[in-house]
Design brief:
mainly alpha, globular, single chain
């Protein structure tokens, strides 16, 4: 097996072993806010107009992916930087791309359980249909958001900055982007800003896939999400410094 793949595998295993006693807290953290928001929106609008609930379920699903991938991973990497943990990895015979890929995969895996919770609620409570393209888009979206969080965590000088940046961005992309609403419902200025965030394309692709559209017809949003993934795996290793001063 090629060494970069071996490096990636063992780094991923080490990352997941660290979480073996804490995974349920990540699940609760990534699920609590989206489920709470979904209940609030159902009480506010959905019980009077059930037709809007699929949009809200998709919004909560994307919100959970964002919490589990971008927010948690960005803050975790900021904490690792404060603890000079990267110097430990600098002493190992591993490549930066393998390390970043393992970190992004960890974020992706931690984000998926929340998405599964939201899909289960959508199917059981609102008669949504889960399609194969939705599953594929969920995985790509989780990777894109984890990569986005990794960029924030690696670029931020310390844990305090990464925590502040991720929380501010989380608020902006969820409350001022087309996550719980569609792009056409946003003012023109916010539409242009929304195009900067992976959550925009994730929500768009998932909404279309939920309407039975095949994956081939979702090439634009899915392609942009893949672009976020590739960019994070290329740009982050170039900017990553093992040593933090």
């Amino acid at each position: 097996m090629p060494k970069p793949i071996t490096d990636f595998w063992w780094l991923l295993c080490s990352q997941l072993l660290v979480l073996r006693d804490q995974w349920y807290w990540y699940l609760v953290q990534a699920s609590f806010v989206p489920v709470s928001m979904l209940i609030f929106l159902w009480l506010l609008t959905g019980r009077h107009d059930p037709s809007v609930m699929p949009v809200f379920v998709i919004g909560s699903l994307v919100s959970g992916l964002s919490f589990g991938g971008m927010l948690s991973l960005g803050q975790e990497l900021g904490g690792m930087k404060d603890q000079n943990a990267f110097e430990h990895y600098a002493a190992l015979p591993i490549s930066k791309p393998a390390f970043v890929a393992a970190i992004a995969t960890r974020g992706m895996l931690l984000a998926l359980p929340s998405a599964i919770v939201m899909l289960t609620i959508g199917v059981a409570a609102f008669q949504m249909t889960v399609t194969a393209p939705m599953i594929v888009i969920m995985v790509i979206s989780a990777y894109a958001l984890a990569g986005f969080g990794a960029i924030i965590g690696f670029v931020s000088p310390n844990a305090q900055v990464s925590s502040l940046v991720t929380q501010i961005l989380q608020t902006i992309i969820l409350n001022f982007g087309p996550v719980y609403i569609t792009m056409t419902d946003l003012p023109t200025a916010l539409r242009w800003i929304a195009r900067l965030w992976p959550t925009t394309y994730s929500a768009e692709a998932l909404r279309q896939a939920a309407q039975q559209q095949p994956l081939a017809e979702l090439s634009i949003p899915v392609g942009i999400l893949l672009g976020f993934v590739v960019a994070s795996l290329i740009i982050v290793p170039m900017r990553l410094s093992w040593r933090h001063r």
